[in-house]
Amino acid sequence: MSASDRRPLPSKILVTGASGAGTSTLGRALAADLAAAFLDADDLYWLPTDPPFKQERDPIGRAAMLREALAAPREVVVAGSILGWGAELEDSFDLIVFLVAPAEERIRRLRERELRRRGRVDEEFIAWAGQYDIGTQEGRSLARHLAWLKERRCPVLTLSSVEPVAALVAAIRNTLKAVSRLV
Question: Which of 106, 97, 108, 72 is nearest to 170 (CA)?
Answer without folding.
Answer: 97
